[in-house]
Design brief:
The chain has four helices and two strands. By secondary structure, it is mostly helical. Helix 2 packs across helix 4 and helix 3 crosses helix 4. The longest helix has 16 residues.
Amino acid sequence: MKRTHILVVVSALFILVGCGGTANDYSPPADASGERIFSTVCSECHKPLSANKAMILSEKSANKEAIIKKFQSGSMRMPAFKNIQGEAADRLAEYILTNSEVQQ
């Protein structure tokens, strides 16, 4: 029983850690579309909900500035993508906004 309990706890820790929380050194190609950046780095953890819906956003995060801040700084379970800057950051944020649903 103890062995099973330990196995469950260790498995839960791996799940809670998710994709990490450390920085990611990915740099998008200069001509990469927002969709390409999303499918390359974001979809590893954020599986698209459907063919035309990338994710569900809260009202608070449903703006370009909040999205850029989120992927550049990361969070507890999400790595920071500090190298997605400038036009690439704008294209990724626009893709996410255009292809996501806002939760009311």
